[in-house]
Amino acid sequence: MVDTKVPFEVSEQMREFADRSIDQARKAFDNFMDATESTVASMEEASSTMQEDSSDLHRHALAFAEQNVSSAFELAQSMFKARDMEDIVKLQQEYLQKQMEMTGAQMREMSEKAARTVKDAAKKASDS
After folding, report:
1. What's the CA gap between 78 and 83, in Å, rounded?
2. What is the spatial distance between Cα 20 and Cα 17, in angstroms, rounded to a whole number?
3. Could you give the C-alpha distances from 14 to 3, 10, 26, in angstroms and in order?
4. How far apart are CA 57 and CA 51, in angstroms?
5. For residue 79, which of 66, 69, 94 has the smallest C-alpha distance?
6. pLDDT digits (tens, 9 = 90+) for 21-61
């Protein structure tokens, strides 16, 4: 039989070099994982904030929709009480003017809230 075992000797310097290299690689990986976990945590926080703020935007949109429907019902009631066609046309014109103003104000408010939401989320993400 042929001896297939070849003696394998590693010098002490090579062992130390390998140990240091492995330790450095492990530390680098640990630092990478710490940074990754920190980033994920800040993203989760920002996401949570966005969800909360998004819910607030949805509530406002629902309140605006309720306002608009209520205005439409008020118009219908007023039109029902109108004496003639001239009154109906006047009521419709007033309603449309009021709705245009109200819709403009609602859109401005929603835009401001959305911009504030994005700004707050970006600030929280950068603070983390």
Report:
1. 10
2. 5
3. 26, 6, 18
4. 10
5. 94
6. 888 988 898 888 888 888 877 766 766 666 776 777 888 88
Tokens 């909360």 map to which residue?
A: 52
Distances (CA, A) of 27 to 18, 37, 103: 14, 15, 58
Place of tokens 């009521």: 91
Q: How long a stretch of residues is the chain?
A: 128
In tens, the pLDDT along 51-83 reads: 776 777 888 888 899 888 988 998 999 888 888
pTM equals: 0.56
Domain ranges within the chain, ordered by starting residue: 12-127
3-state secondary structure of 3: coil
71 neighbors 99 (Cβ within 8 angstroms): yes
* Tokens coding 4: 């297939």
